[in-house]
Give the backbone structure.
Amino acid sequence: MTRRLYFLFAALMLCLIVSCTSVTNVTTAGKHPLTEEKPLMERVEELVSKGDLKGALELYEAENGDDKLLYAILLFNNSRIDDAESVLSGFLVSEPENLDALYYLSLIYNMKGESDNEEKILKQILAADPDNEEANLALGKLYYSKKNFKQAETAFKRGLESGSLDNEARFGYAVLLMKQEKNDEALKQYDTVIKNDPENMFAYIDRGYLKSLKEDYEGAEKDLDVAVKLNPDYIWNYVDRGRTRLYSGKYEEAVKDFDRAIEMDPDIFICYAHRAKAFEALGENDRALADYKKALSENSDYYYGYLPTAMQLYRAGEYKAASEYFLKAYDAEQSQTFILLAAASMMKDGDKFNAKQLVKKHISEIPRDDLMYHISRVYIDPPYEGIAVRKVDEEKIPLTKLQGYFYLAIYYDTFGKSVLSEDFFSKVVEFDFPETLEHRIAEWKLNEIGE
């Protein structure tokens, strides 16, 4: 069998191992243009090059071709997998070290989902030829599918060093590097993938994600713009670009992307969660609350949404529901501050007894030298207020001091002590930590007082 013909089939097999689907059969109309002058191998090669795999097999069987390896490959390409395996197994009895035959047998095992047999054969090939390009790449893909990333990386690197890494394998290698958080190396591989295949949408998506991690939001957005152009019907392009725009402060544009994604599929909860964040940043809190509620109605286990939903419910005066979500946030993150927020919400809802019992239940979890212990004591024993205020005034760490003033302000607010609560909320805002939940709620309360 000529090396050129083997090469044609090798190209076909590489597609097969990546897609795990059989090559579509194409038959020519009428009789095959056979001439007695041309050798059988040459006629088969012509049919294969035209994509007429069925015709090539029929010709080879009709003329009793005697190359068993070629026959097995033709059977394989015509979806006669079991027949191909039988012929290859027979061939390997007489030529057990034929690396081409072993490689195609590994492809058969890949198609049949027999990964252990595939791995065994590929290792057999590499034991005889450690630098075998096809076997190294196939083994890398196999290890990747098994989530054995370290061995997959080793195999891919061998292919990279030999210069044999095809673009699809390189893409897999880039994904592997990204999963291992080797982001700079992954970016280089995606650059090459895109250079070789400028219409690879998923390469732009992944590269955009990596650029976003490096806070190169402009570069990330450009990549996602390309992804949208390549496939405007792929919903996750809008989700990813919307998220990138959200991170870069382009809130109105982010909302438009999430609007488009929700229009395409109204059941994807994360779209509502992200749009809610954009609405919050735009000061559209009622719309943010509606989106948080929708996100959690679609996925009640989305614990990242518990705290912002609780905060918005508190702002909106839905105190009972707010306390429930603050407690959910506590269950997810075990932060004592959420207990105090839940208790304050219960107090605002008129349930002072259970609020006090809640703080009593959890105060033992806090070290006695922790500022939050002294704040919590106030919720249980109001006369302790003077000691707690002194502890807050003496606190040296700005963020901890801010929290102390805030949770006292919330406490005063629940009992209608408006002058004290306004004073302490003002102190919280003066610390200028706008990213904290304490700062945001304090601003809401001050705006509410000022109306």
